[in-house]
Design goal:
Blueprint (H helix, E strand, L loop, with lengths): L5 E6 L5 H12 L2 E4 H14 L3 E2 L2 E2 L1 H7 L5 E6 L4 E6 L2 E2 L7 H4 L2 H4 L3 H17 L2 E5 L2 H5 L5 E6 L2 H14 L6 H17 L12 E4 L5 H15 L1
Parallel strand pairs: 1-8, 1-9, 2-8, 9-10
Antiparallel strand pairs: 3-4, 5-6, 6-7
This protein binds cytidine-5'-diphosphate.
The site of cytidine-5'-diphosphate has 16 residues, from helix 2, helix 5 and helix 9.
Length: 228
């Protein structure tokens, strides 16, 4: 089998990574992997299994339960989309709400959680060429990725985009709550001990505050075409 290729799309919360990563994957005929969904699914499991006590994560309880967590992606014929399964249950929608968003960065700080998910991510790349988005894809998971992007945009613009998305889904939430959540997650994600969010030295920086989705896609595709 020929060597698989990896495009890493890292960056801050709500920078539109998943939208553009999906589109690039479709165009390149690569598999798209949402690594954030994996951290969200573990968080959903932690919430369901009372691993948070008074909003604080009981790390050892979660670590002891890690072997009970099975995560996979599957194509769903109803929605015609790839969805994430947690212990065979489709949790694609359930993991996107604010409850999971408000807890996920604490779960993502746990080294044992990261080890488990990074192993799974590397297994996926041994089978298919991938576009994977996340926080540590170019820096830790695939330091030899073929192309690496690092996405950013102003916090206000990111909160505006995420607020609109959640409103469309019918979640009752204020702009301010979304803004606070984004800032809090950025702060935890960039300052944590294990695999913090950083721009890999060889990553291409994309500030999309003033870029349309189309412009951003073209810029990224152009960079990819120069390498692949
Ligand atoms: O909300 P957004 O789409 O920006 O985030 P996400 O990609 O769904 O990721 C949710 C959270 O998972 C992040 O805030 C990080 O705490 C964590 N994460 C991580 O630590 N490493 C990754 N490779 C992906 C996500």
């Amino acid at each position: 089998m020929s060597k698989t290729q990896v495009i890493a799309v890292d960056g801050y919360s709500s920078t539109g990574k998943s939208t553009v990563a999906k589109r690039l994957a479709k165009h390149l005929k690569f598999v798209y992997v949402d690594s954030g969904a994996m951290y969200r699914a573990v968080t959903f499991f932690a919430l369901q299994n009372q691993c948070f006590e008074h909003k604080k994560l009981n790390r050892s309880k979660l670590i002891n339960l890690l072997d009970d967590i099975d995560i996979e992606f599957k194509f769903d014929h109803n929605s015609q989309k790839s969805v994430i399964l947690l212990n065979q249950n489709n949790v694609e929608e359930a993991i996107r709400g604010m409850q999971v968003s408000n807890h996920v960065s604490y779960v993502a700080e746990v080294q044992e959680v990261r080890q488990k998910l990074v192993e799974l991510q590397r297994q996926m790349a041994s089978k298919h060429s991938l576009v994977m988005d996340g926080r540590d894809i170019g820096s830790v998971v695939f330091p030899n990725a073929d192309v690496k992007f690092f996405m950013t945009a102003s916090a206000e613009e990111r909160a505006r985009r995420r607020f609109k998305e959640l409103q469309q889904k019918g979640e009752s939430i204020t702009y301010d709550e979304v803004y606070q959540n984004i800032q809090k997650r950025d702060q935890i994600d960039t300052s944590r001990q294990h695999s913090p969010l950083i721009q890999a030295e060889d990553a291409i920086l994309i500030d999309n505050t003033n870029l349309s989705q189309e412009e951003q896609f073209e810029v990224m595709l152009d960079s990819i075409s120069q390498v692949l």
